Amino acid sequence: HGTSRINEQGHLEIGGVDTTELVKQFGTPLYVYDEAMMRETIRAYKQAFEKSGLRYEVAYASKAFCTLAMCRIIDEEGLALDVVSSGELYTALQAGFPAERIHFHGNNKTPDEIELALTAGIGEFVVDNFHELKLLGALASEKGVIADILLRLAPGVEAHTHEYISTGQEDSKFGFDMKGDMAKRAVVAALTTPGVRLIGLHSHIGSQIFETDGFTAAVDIVAEFFGKCVRELGANDLHKLNVGGGFGIRYTEEDTPLTAEAYIAAITAAVTTAFDRLQLTYPEIVIEPGRSIVGAAGTTLYSVGSTKDIPGVRKYVSVNGGMTDNPRPALYQAVYEAMLANRANEERDELVSVAGKACESGDMLIWDVKLPQVKADDILAVSCTGAYGYSMASNYNRIARPAVVFVQNGQADLVVKRESHDDLVSHDLIPARLTSGVL
Ligand code: LLP
């Protein structure tokens, strides 16, 4: 994976940095991101589009992993940025990310969030529902500005993925339904709402997708509707077709993602075919990958603590993190691979299960993984944790969130500090009536 290798000491090295050195310097648990790998993936998407000669935009879905440093990388690489909350928006703005390249998503943007986005002058809103359309139109008009919008459509396409992470099907909280007349009514409403300009249509069919047929099916449906909007409804400013994100990555051998090139080739082919048929000018094609940009570039380093051997049943190996830094196994039965970073060359002759430290039986990071005979203080490296790990981390059990480092060219940079115990109580208050005898 990426710049990872096993060095002369038999240690896992990422970005030219020995992970055992990272542990000495920054402690564990630690999220380590291979910066070169992220940049490489981004460039692969761009190159695939360049080949097509079509107008395109790649937006990074920051929900996968959003920090100031990450926003800087996305800006340096010239991508647009998707945000889904005022928190992500604020992070982007604090990182100096150009507002005009920010897209605002979400099925329940609050008035305060819309206000912040309008004030910042973000590039576009992906409007999810009638309530939002009305609210945005009113707030934009009040400010005397016009907000560029895309309408989020639910094309009724089911991606083959875990049901909690598939979003394009009909029975979904997201977007305007295309089966009835809801989507058409949304377009008419958008065209008659002051303060907004309809510039595009959007669909997102799900996440961790390994085939192209879902994208092709969604493009067909949305392109057909695009034609209707232009020809019959007078949507003259329509020029963007956003097909969402969802490109899969290889967590384990069983996963079979396609290359960036293959996904983009299928999408561009579907778009050109549909628009040729409709005899319409090709739209600007937009994708918004999150997981595939950061997922495989992230590795989490843990320290091993206790073990429990139940003869004939299972050996549990506990690490100093778990569902608080990576809730995906508990939430989605997600499967990960791991290795001992400090003994990367040793024979893996023991089958163990890796447990987290939270007080919950479900806090298991990996059921059944082959490792060398594990002992306390070994360093366990879990790979492909870069997406929806840090961004979904919690403080359950008042466990502090780990630090994050970016590594490249033999250099490690701390990009998120480890939370301290003081951080954990920093928002707590004790009402005066409870302080007697204590303070
Ligand atoms: N665009 C929209 C509108 C989305 O809803 C999402 C993800 C993306 C783009 C980016 O999708 P990606 O390329 O990252 O697959 N927490 C779950 C994944 C939730 C995805 C939500 N939407 C997980 O850990 O698997």
Automatic annotation (TrEMBL):
Keywords: Amino-acid biosynthesis, Decarboxylase, Lyase, Lysine biosynthesis, Pyridoxal phosphate. PROSITE patterns: ODR_DC_2_2. CDD domains: PLPDE_III_DapDC. Its EC number is 4.1.1.20. Pyridoxal 5'-phosphate binds at residues 246, 288-291, 388. The keyword Amino-acid biosynthesis applies. Substrate binds at residues 291, 328, 332, 360, 388. HAMAP family: LysA. Specifically catalyzes the decarboxylation of meso-diaminopimelate (meso-DAP) to L-lysine. This is Diaminopimelate decarboxylase. The lineage of its organism: Bacteria, Bacillati, Bacillota, Bacilli, Bacillales.
